[in-house]
Amino acid sequence: MKVSEDHPRYRSLVVRERMSELVREGVVAPTGLIAHGRGEAFDYLLGERTSPSALEAERAAAAYLLEAKRPVITVNGNAAGLCAEGLLSLARAVPAKVEVNLFHRTPERVEKVVSFLESVGGKDILGRQQESVLEGIASDRALCAAEGIASADVVLIPLEDGDRAGALVKAGKIVLAIDLNPLSRTSVVSNVTAVDELTRAVPNIERFVRELKDAPEERRRVIESYDNQHTLREARETMRSVLQGMGKT
Hints:
Elements: H1 8-25, H2 30-45, H3 52-67, E1 71-75, H4 77-93, E2 97-100, H5 107-119, E3 132-133, E4 143-144, E5 154-158, H6 162-170, E6 174-178, H7 185-189, E7 192-194, H8 198-212, H9 216-225, H10 228-247
Helix pairs in contact: 1-2, 3-8, 3-9, 3-10, 4-8
């Protein structure tokens, strides 16, 4: 059966091909494809759409980014492969610094990811030099730039691992996550979790950034009223409803 180009399944096929190509180029790690496939499975449970609770989280993320004194968006290989242009556009809108941070880290791969971001318009990308260390992490993900993650007060971490999310929170940073799994350690420990697909979430956050940019009182109201545990409960309820609906077809 042929899938129309505007169907979510068609987009998934295109994205898989793109991610596979970026594995061959060294931007995405081979194990990144496993993580991507897991994310697709959770997105099916969300009905492949942004839920109302995810929108609330994305608005809260925008408010935190705008209230921050030193916001940083951290990018790994999967995030770069899926949404490089969107993340760079969001960084410009805030504005926020962008830092590459990799689990499977080699100097060569860092250079490839940074260069990839630069090739699509990124400027002043951090990550080539990471002289600071985030405590509580055994892997190379502990490495970070002194002028980036190390000194940030708010960090957006799309497609993150739970250990580093927890370490960032313990370091006193406000952590904003984009994670399709509402049960993951990243989702649970973060201050704000948008349970949404990356390429839907990032434009939403940017739209809210533009809406809230000249509304400081509204930003603070959004932050004060936000409850991440409520967001995660609503995400699980959305998945339950989708599964129940599938059972009736």
